[in-house]
């Protein structure tokens, strides 16, 4: 097995400070690989800082580096998809631009790939530089989605992973717009193995994912990989209907036995409000799924390329 290719794909959004520190570490890791042609592909996901200029400098100094710039900020998942789409041969390794996924582990990932694994993913045994709230919610989320989703989604596992050529080409066939990558990797399957690692603190800058964005990301994951909430709405509806019937029966019997003195305004109000609330929740749930269906039906491209600059090559614009 000589001269297989490995392309390290990195999505970067405003990482001008971290990139110059990260690149030498990646370069050093690639040099350790025996019989493997190492490449690096940076995807600039609509950065508004000096990231693109920094990347240009890195590419000038290192002929293994290719660059891709998207037309605007499309989000990490789309940026990664754009990067992976450009990998034509060999395996791909995904890591974060901020140094949270240590490139020093690349040789370990490659060793597993050589043993025949298709999806080698890093599992966080410890997270450094992240608050307890983020750690606790992340922990809860991975357990929750793990139980809800029929697709296996390994816990505490992010995008830090190596994909063999066949798992990469399988992933390329999944073109859905709402991309919950962790789930997509799980859907692909093949031989998967985890490599435990300590997640480092960011090299510089701050996380792009605030609380609100993470919350939406969690909703994305749940609605993309499970229809359990719809089922839950059905059960809630059935339960409410049963209780309503019992209550109606009780009212009728009461009226027959003791007559019907007009009273019960509190009861009426609470029943109306309760039923209204349940209906709105169920409607909102349907809306979440419908909205996603609507997005899919538009069939827009997942991203647009502004500049594609192959390794040590000329610049070509547009797509
Ligand atoms: N990122 C991106 N586009 C975005 C947001 C983030 O390409 O819109 C990249 C970012 O540069 C980093 C990775 O995705 O390389 C993870 O982002 P971040 O570190 O902000 O997230 P966290 O590690 O806190 O989950
Ligand atoms: Mg990070």
Automatic annotation (TrEMBL):
Compartment(s) of residence: Cell membrane
Annotated protein name in UniProt: Glycosyltransferase involved in cell wall bisynthesis
Protein species of origin: Pseudoxanthomonas wuyuanensis
Membrane topology: Multi-pass membrane protein
Main location: membrane
GO cellular component, one term: plasma membrane
Gene3D superfamilies xrefs: Spore Coat Polysaccharide Biosynthesis Protein SpsA, Chain A
Keyword field: Cell membrane, Glycosyltransferase, Membrane, Transferase, Transmembrane, Transmembrane helix
Domain of life, source organism: Bacteria
């Amino acid at each position: 097995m000589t001269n297989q290719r490995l392309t390290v794909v990195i999505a970067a959004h405003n990482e001008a400070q971290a990139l110059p520190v990260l690149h030498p570490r990646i370069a050093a890791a690639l040099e350790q690989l025996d019989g493997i042609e190492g490449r690096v592909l940076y995807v600039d996901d609509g950065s508004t800082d000096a990231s693109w200029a920094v990347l240009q400098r890195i590419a000038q100094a290192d002929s293994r580096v290719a660059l891709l710039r998207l037309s605007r900020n499309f989000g990490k998942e789309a940026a990664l998809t754009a990067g992976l789409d450009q990998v034509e041969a060999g395996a791909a390794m995904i890591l974060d631009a901020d140094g949270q996924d240590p490139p020093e582990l690349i040789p370990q990932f490659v060793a597993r790939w050589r043993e025949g694994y298709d999806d080698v993913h890093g599992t966080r045994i410890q997270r450094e530089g992240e608050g307890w709230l983020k750690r606790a919610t992340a922990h809860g989320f991975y357990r929750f989605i793990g139980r809800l989703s029929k697709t296996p989604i390994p816990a505490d596992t992010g995008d830090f992973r190596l994909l063999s050529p066949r798992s990469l080409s399988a992933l390329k066939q999944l073109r859905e717009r709402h991309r919950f990558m962790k789930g997509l990797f799980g859907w692909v399957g093949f031989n998967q193995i985890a490599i435990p690692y300590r997640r480092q603190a960011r090299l510089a800058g701050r996380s792009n994912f605030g609380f609100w964005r993470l919350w939406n990301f969690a909703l994305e994951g749940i609605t993309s990989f499970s229809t359990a909430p719809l089922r839950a709405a059905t059960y809630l509806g059935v339960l409410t209907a049963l209780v309503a019937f019992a209550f109606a029966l009780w009212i009728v019997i009461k009226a027959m036995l003791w007559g019907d003195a007009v009273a019960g305004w509190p009861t009426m109000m609470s029943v109306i409000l309760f039923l209204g609330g349940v209906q709105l929740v169920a409607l909102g749930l349907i809306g979440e799924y419908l909205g996603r269906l609507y997005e899919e039906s538009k069939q827009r491209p997942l991203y647009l390329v502004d500049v594609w600059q192959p390794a040590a090559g000329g610049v070509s614009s547009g797509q």
